[in-house]
Amino acid sequence: MRIARIAHATGMSFAVLEGEGPGATAAEIEGHPFAQIKMTGQRWALEDVRLLAPILPSKVVCVGRNYAEHAAELGNEVPDEPLIFIKPSTSIIGPGEAVRIPAVSDQVEHEAELAVVVGLPGARGIDKDTAAASIFGYTCANDVTARDLQRKDVQFTRAKGFDSFCPLGPWIETDFDPGDAEIRCEVGGEVRQLGSTKDMVFDPATLISYISQVMTLLPGDVVLTGTPAGVGPLQSGETVSVSVAGIGELSNKVIDSE
Ligand code: ZN
User: Fold this and answer.
1) What pTM, to 2 d.p., does this model score?
2) CB within 8 A of 80, min separation 6: which ones?
3) Could you read off the pLDDT of 125-171 as tens digits, one per residue?
4) 9 alpha carbon – ligand 1 mean position (Å)
5) Which of 112, 137, 162, 215 has a CB 3.0–4.6 Å from the CB of 174, allowing a cystine?
6) Distance between CA atoms of 216 and 133, rounded to whole angstroms?
7) Cα of 166 to ligand 1 centre, how many Å?
């Protein structure tokens, strides 16, 4: 099932997306989608609504160096435990919104990632099996990174935390197997990253279990699972697309910050 957050003529709602192409619709959900889903009966043509970031989490927890080839391309070893960091919730933008390049960076890069959305009741100190059961669904993410600032600062908060540096979407797919899905990044139609989730060092359930020993993951919290090899620069005027087979495609234009 595809769950989206939409802006429509009378407000914002979660919705179930049904169908493809011109006949696609968005059926409104009452409240949030994490418990039993109740429909309101309101339905719109998909073309009459705007897709927003599919969730507004309390935090986005990210994992670095979770694909061996990507760790190698930046001259890093694969860590023996997941390397985690946080992107602020204010870095999130939805599909179609603009990634804004800050004036203080000369090297802003894309990182195509599979994003995991935690469901009810959240996750705190849980084992791997419980972590697998705590997953609500999956979406696409772009862990936009000011690489020059990441190198300069050593820790990641500034380089990963600018407003607009976390495109999420286009929706949450609840029926998705993260075992072997193609993950791709295109810039201006040119393929930059092409990998598979099967090459993750730590799988999503392992990551959620690990993170939950450190901090409580609340329902709706998002975990970015790392990026495959091929990260590279984004320039103002380009369009960057992240797609995960079985989920969908997340596209964002790139502009300079004012
Ligand atoms: Zn990343």
Assistant:
1) 0.97
2) none
3) 999 999 999 999 999 999 999 999 999 999 999 999 999 999 999 99
4) 35
5) 137
6) 16
7) 10
